[in-house]
Amino acid sequence: MKHKQRRNAKGKAAKSVLRLPDLEVAKSAVLNSLSCPDAQRGYRHAIDEFVNWYCSEPRLSFSKTVVVRYRMHLESRHLAPGTVNLRLGAVRRLAYEAADCGLLSADLAAGIRRVKGVKKLGFKLGNWLTAEQGATLWQAPDKERLKGKRDRALLSLLLACGLRRHEVAELTIDQFQQREGHWAIVDLSGKGGHIRTVPVPDWVYCELGAWIDAAAIKTGKVFRRVSSAGKAWGEGVTEKLAWHVVKEFARKTRVNNLAPHDLRRTCARLCRAAGGENWNRSTSSWATCRCKRQNVIMRSQ
Question: Among 61, 164, 196, 252, which one is most buried in terms of CB atoms within 10 A?
Answer without folding.
Answer: 164
